[in-house]
């Protein structure tokens, strides 16, 4: 059993740490105040190859392993948690397109994603259908010439205000999952309107509702076979949920590093506050918990890379890591006392930001359902 990274992986992690510290971290809080995605962020991420991690080299990407994608999300999120969304969304969409799109489609769609020229969004959730995505109501109605027209609303779309293109699930057939198809489309403003959310956290990523009003879609924009969109898309979520877990743990680790240093520097009653068990023990506990959660996340990604079943491990990562990260960051804020409650500290923003991924991409209840069915068998689980 080998728990070490290779020398190349360690060197890449160090490169990511320098990038996150020097390039990303200085903008983390100011981007939140402006509540808008900086175009420079996309450019900087693309220059590091982070927008094309899971894209094949022949299409301009890095063709990185799932483990490397998770490592990148973890280290980027230490400097700027919201920059991690560019890795999470791009990796998920790229993986789906690589597995399901034709070579011609990949050659047209993947290079702009890898270069940062095209920022994609993932459009599944609807006002009445989040977890139960197989019942979505957005329609792709035949236009009489072999294509379709997309009509309906997608909501809670990450990067929704900034995205140039989107992978959209829409109903082309009858009820249920088999009536759903996937399309990769340009977000033409003549047919797509956007409404931004005023969120508690992660304001820079521009979560939004997108309204499709008869967007023309050709057969060349159909991803995979008609009626197979739901199944092909859902298969991609397993490993992306482990990447989400590592992004949350990266933010928690940054806060923990800051709290540990504060416990050394801050004195009260003539001693550093770290000498008091009430301060030191919670930091020791969360260091332990975070290490355990990292192992779960990386195991899921390792299993993905080795073509092993990983849905249960990915579900563990998704429900545990965001929850644990939220709790750990909260404890770090308390360690700083009144200074941690100030908006000048990044700890409070990390807390607000990480909470969003306790909800997004699948709630804890959904993850536990996946684990329970793997554990007990479908006939003996909820």
TrEMBL record:
Domain Acyl-CoA dehydrogenase/oxidase N-terminal stretches: 7-117
Positions of transmembrane segments: none
Keyword presence, Flavoprotein: yes
Family named by the database record: Belongs to the acyl-CoA dehydrogenase family.
InterPro entries: Acyl-CoA_Oxase/DH_mid-dom, Acyl-CoA_Oxase/DH_mid-dom_sf, AcylCo_DH-like_C, AcylCo_DH/oxidase_C, AcylCoA_DH/ox_N, AcylCoA_DH/ox_N_sf, AcylCoA_DH/oxidase_NM_dom_sf
Domain annotation Acyl-CoA dehydrogenase/oxidase C-terminal: ranges: 227-376
Residues of the Acyl-CoA oxidase/dehydrogenase middle domain: 121-213
Domain of life: Bacteria
A Pfam family of this chain: Acyl-CoA_dh_M
Protein name from the UniProt record: Acyl-CoA dehydrogenase family protein
Organism of derivation: Prauserella alba
Swiss-Prot/TrEMBL keywords: FAD, Flavoprotein, Oxidoreductase
CC cofactor: FAD
Keyword match Flavoprotein: yes
């Amino acid at each position: 059993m080998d728990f070490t990274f290779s020398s190349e992986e360690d060197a890449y992690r160090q490169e990511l740490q320098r990038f996150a510290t020097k390039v990303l971290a200085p903008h983390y809080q100011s981007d939140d105040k402006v509540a808008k995605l900086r175009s420079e962020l996309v450019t900087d991420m693309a220059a590091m190859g982070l927008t094309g991690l899971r894209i094949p080299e022949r299409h301009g990407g890095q063709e990185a392993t799932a483990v490397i994608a998770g490592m990148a999300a973890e280290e980027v999120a230490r400097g700027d948690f919201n920059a991690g969304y560019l890795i999470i969304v791009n990796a998920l969409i790229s993986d789906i397109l690589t597995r399901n799109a034709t070579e011609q489609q990949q050659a047209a769609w993947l290079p702009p994603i890898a270069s940062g020229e095209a920022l994609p969004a993932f459009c599944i959730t609807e006002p009445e259908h989040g977890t139960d995505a197989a019942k979505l109501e957005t329609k792709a109605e035949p236009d009489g010439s072999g294509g379709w027209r997309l009509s309906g609303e997608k909501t809670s779309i990450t990067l929704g205000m900034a995205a140039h293109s989107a992978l959209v699930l829409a109903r082309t057939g009858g009820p249920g999952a088999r009536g759903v198809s996937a399309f990769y489309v340009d977000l033409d403003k003549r047919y797509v309107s956007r409404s931004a959310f005023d969120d508690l956290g992660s304001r820079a990523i521009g979560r939004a509702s997108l309204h499709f009003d008869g967007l023309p879609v050709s057969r060349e924009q159909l991803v995979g076979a008609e009626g197979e969109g739901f199944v092909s898309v859902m298969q991609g979520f397993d490993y992306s949920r482990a990447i989400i877990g590592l992004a949350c743990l990266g933010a928690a680790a940054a806060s923990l590093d800051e709290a540990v240093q504060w416990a050394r520097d801050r004195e009260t009653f003539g001693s550093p506050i770290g000498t008091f068990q009430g301060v030191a023990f919670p930091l020791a506990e969360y260091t332990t918990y975070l290490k355990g959660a990292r192992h779960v996340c990386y195991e899921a990604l390792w299993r993905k890379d080795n073509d092993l079943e990983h849905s249960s491990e990915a579900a563990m990562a998704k429900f545990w890591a965001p929850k644990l990260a939220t709790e750990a960051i909260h404890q770090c804020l308390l360690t700083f006392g009144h200074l941690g409650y100030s908006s000048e500290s990044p700890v409070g923003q990390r807390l607000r930001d990480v909470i969003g991924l306790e909800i997004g991409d699948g709630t804890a209840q959904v993850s536990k359902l996946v684990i329970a069915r793997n554990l007990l068998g479908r006939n003996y689980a909820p």
